[in-house]
Fold this protein.
Amino acid sequence: AVYDSFSSLPTTNYDFVIVGGGTAGNVLANRLTEDPKISVLVLEAGGTNSNAFQLDVPLFSLNLKFQYDWNFTTTIQPGLSNRSTFMPRGFVLGGSSSVNGMFYTRGSADDYDRFAAVTGDAGWSWDNLQPYLAKNEKWEPPADRQNTTGQFNPAVHSTTGINAVTLSGFPQSIDPMVFKAVDELGGIFHFNEDYNSGKPLGFGWLQHTITTQGRRSSSATSYLASQFISRTNLDVLLHARVSRILPSSSQTSSSGFAFRIVEFAQDLDGPLLQVEASKEVILSAGVFGSPHILLNSGIGDSRELSDVGIKPLVDLPSVGKNLSDQPAVFNTFFTNSTRTNDDILRNATLLNQVYTEFNKTGMGPLVTTGGNQISFYRVSENLTDRFGDPSSGKDSPHLEMVPGNGFFGTPPPTGHYFQLGTVVVSPASRGSVTINSTNPFDPPLIDPAYLTSPFDIAAMREAEHIMFQYASAPVWDGYILSPFGALENITASSPDDVLDEFIRNNVGSSAHPVGTAAMSAKNADYGVVDPDLRVKGVDGLRIIDASVFPFVTSGHTQAPTYAIAERAAALVQAAWV
Ligand SMILES: Cc1cc2nc3c(=O)[nH]c(=O)nc-3n(C[C@H](O)[C@H](O)[C@H](O)COP(=O)(O)OP(=O)(O)OC[C@H]3O[C@@H](n4cnc5c(N)ncnc54)[C@H](O)[C@@H]3O)c2cc1C
């Protein structure tokens, strides 16, 4: 069941304590309690969001007032836009899966084969992860039950998992034009029937974590659905913000410390509470939360911890390093069409109308995210020859471009818009998460280090060229009127320095940071967790969330997070159940 207060929990004896009821944490909570003899407590810092409108409606995910974690302190390189200080994370049951854009992209087969290569564990390869992708995915017909033949490859999908995945349940007026442009241009613009086959390059129909009823499928609505959360061996405590994991004096360990005691507070000014797991503590507090808790606990770079005034207990210099996020730019054009999503997003009467329809029928414009396609590209060989290739292989993209039928975010009061978002999905830059305080409730310091590698800015320039080339297809003649905002000063033939300035002024997070507690091979002298996701050099503590990715996968990160969590659950079960 779900509880608000520690004192109301039915017991304080649990086999596993999971820190963070987010995307990965709820997979673990569900899978481990399949065995009625195993008891699990989830400590989640956020609450539940009673605003069904915000949580359920796909179209509005882009306009969500995010359930924020504390205001992270973000430092950015000089010259970058303020937008790049914005680090959205879900701070609510379901974590980021409750507030994300719902795109379902697995990345490439090479991405996972690289995980297997760097960890020395073939279990992380694309082929070996297939059963776990299948345990997560529950393919459903789209809300409008349209004929989806030719829009995906059923052979690479599972209908038996827990988390709903579907194609768009509402057509966008631009759909035919999007693919006409692909036909007109050819070359790098080609149709890909299913970008989730392991080979993502090309233009395909977007798949999302949306149910056949047109609603968001998050880890809270799926893995904690009523038939699971009602298990008597599964308890979730909300508003429980974990500060540190403490060594257990009662435990002995060949490797030194066993960390099985979790310290947390329900009220940041209130008392610190503790709960001890008899088997393991699993950190699933996300890419910022998990390394933050490790550092607070004295697990990190010993010298850096001593400098802050924290007693180092385990020297693991890689904690908080290797932060990998994908820089993104929105490119907006005016269109002469009035059939965009802009009016719905700014006109309360219209919005009420379609929301009533959505509630009654589970259909209408609110059941999609505002664009129905996605596309992936490689940069030129010239670039990889010059800077090296940060991608995982020849079938892996460096770049993504997403068309949107309207303004991204809250639209201006007038005008109709066409959007082409560009992203560097295989970046070379690496940032960090650090602390500068002994108070565990002070925010961590985040440096996303966007565009610090010369590859990334050059790759984003190529993404902009691809975007202009795509927008120049004959079908867009008369549909795209003129560039909007800062894009007004840019053309396909702008010199590099002008394009670079535009990019730096407009870049921001794609909300896909990973890698701050990365897995590495058992004997590697870097990395934070071993291939079984146990924290190196200690007992009783694993990390299972997006922070363990050694590299960011070449797409959006929820599907890989789910797959990692599903396999991790099997590893934990194999050790204990
Ligand atoms: C706005 C947004 C849009 C996105 N869009 C997409 C998309 O369209 N497609 C896609 O594939 N991916 C998307 N992502 C990324 C994807 O959702 C994440 O990579 C993934 O959900 C991360 O899962 P996680 O388990 O690592 O962390 P989370 O799901 O963030 O879970 C971490 C949990 O830990 C809790 N927590 C944190 N600190 C503490 C603490 N100290 N004590 C207790 N609990 C704590 C948090 O409240 C949260 O519930 C998006 C993310 C965001 C934020």
